[in-house]
Structure formats: structure tokens, C-alpha cells
């Protein structure tokens, strides 16, 4: 026999009131959590609301995006971000040592696309978080030369010059985007909001594609010797990856274009055109690992390398302090 209609109505009223109170309490808790401080409406994103931790994790990659923008644009176009959109620099100092690279028409076209993609990444991040001015960047031939000598543990004569030809440019390009993409993989599980995760997913997809293009173009020349040096292209990528593993200080998270068979996909190939772990999943890195690599010191508290005065953002500044 069914319950009286009046009893059902009373129960329904109580349930609705309890649910409403619970929802209001949840909303209040969420407001308290996500509104310290209230990041709303920066740079064309009215109504956006992000927790401080998401802001920090989205601002940190600006360091790498600035670096990639400057290197790709100078190499392809002969000028950097100041000539494309000075507002995006935030008034930061001009980069050191950028110059037009001697590239084939095909590689220059690829580099130009990378350049403008990186400009788009800067816009996307700065439309979501406040960001910071471009830090001082060293993209000089001398700095890249030091990195290659550090990787090979040898003094090169003549010094390595990333702007000298297309192969050298690709080898220098191998150094940069992969570090950023591992950082995006590492940041992903730490983000709290769908808005932040969506932005990161879009950035990661394009950075991964850039790295795949660079590795594929180098893989085609894998057995060729780098001009003036008795070292092959695939061999030099392995040395660069070993250096990054050493500076990152967290084990193997980097692999060259050719690996031992047991390290290839499913342990069945020595070719390694796309780096991945034993399940062919992308490696992850923390900000500490990334800074140790791009500083060239292995220490996130000791700046140098591409960032003579250190990287910017709360995370990087906190580690330097």
C-alpha cells in the first residue's frame, strides 16, 4: 500500500532543502578555495577564475615559450618577438645573439611555422594568466656551442654554430621543445581546473608535434656526419639526451634517435624517432628538472645557460631564492 501523498510531499520538501543547502555549502567552499587571489579577466579573459597553483603552473612554461619563440623567429626571419608584437615581450630585455640562420627553403618554411606557433602560445597563455616580461635569453651561437661541447665532453674546432646550416639548426632545435613538452606532461596531473587543463592540452599537442617533426627530419640524416666533426647526427642526439638526463637528475627521461634494442618500442626496434618510456608514453619533468637543464647547471637555484639572469614566475623565482 503506497504512502499518503502528504507524507511524500513532506519528504520531498526536506530532500530539496537539504540538497540546496549542501550545494550552497559546496559552492561557498569552492569560492574560498579558488579565489585566493581572484585571477579574473586578465588580458581578454573576462570571468576566468583560477587557483594560484594553476596560475603558477601555466606561467612557468612562458620561460620556455619565450625561448622557443626567440630562437625560431630569429633563425627563420632574422628578427625576434620585438618586431612581431612588442607587447608580448612585456618590456623584457632583448635576447642575446639571435641571427638569421642559413637554411634551405624547406627548413626555413618549417622554422617560420614554428616561430608563429610559438607566438600563438604566448598569446594563449597571456590571455589566461597575467604572465611576466620576457626574461633575458642567450640564444647566441656561442651558448649553443657550449651546450654541444658539454654534451660531447669535447672542445670543437670550429665551434658548433646553430645558424650555420640546416642540420646544425635542427640539432639546436632538438635541444629545446622536448624539454618543454615533458614539463607540460608533468604539470598536467597537478592542474585543478578544466580551463587550465584545456590550455595545457593544446600547448602540449603542438609542442609534441614540433618535436616529432624535428626528430623525423634529423632521423632522415641519422647516419650522416655533422659538418666539420667526426660525429654522426644520431650520435649527437644521444649525447644531448644523455646530458639532459644528467642535468635533470631524475633518471632516464630522454632518448636519442637510436637506442639499444631493449629501449625501443616494445623492445623490438633500435629506431627511436619519437621518445617514450617502456609503454611508449611521454616522459614527465618537474620545474626543478627543467630549470636544471635549461640553466645548464643541473641546479634550479643556479642560473645560467639560456637564462643568464634566471627564469621568471613564482616557481622559478622561488627556487632561485
Automatic annotation (TrEMBL):
Keywords: Signal. InterPro entries: Pigment-catalase-like. The keyword Signal applies. Pfam families: Ferritin_2. Residues 1-27 form the signal peptide. The keyword Signal applies. It comes from the Eukaryota. This is Desiccation-related protein PCC13-62. It comes from Miscanthus lutarioriparius.
